[in-house]
Amino acid sequence: MKARIEDEKVLLGSEGYALYEQSGFGRPQKDGLKLSPVEALYLVYRGRIEIPGLDFDSLLVRFSQDAHMIRSFLVYRDIRERGYVVQTGPHDFRVFRRGEKPGKGESQYMVRVLSERDLIDFAVVQSEVKTTLNMRKQHVLAVVDDEFEITYYEVKIQKLPGLEESPEPLPASGILSSISAIIYAGVDLGYDQAFYGKRFDDSRIVLATVEAAYLMKQGLVTIEQDGNLLTPDVYCALIGENDPELEKKNTVYSHLRSLNYIPKTGYKFGHHFRVYSGRKIHSEMLVQAIGQGETLPMNSISRSVRMAHSVKKKMLFAGIHDEGIVFIEFARIKL
Question: Taking every annotated instance into account, which residue ranges of this chain make up the domain tRNA intron endonuclease N-terminal (predicted)?
Answer without folding.
Answer: 1-59, 173-233
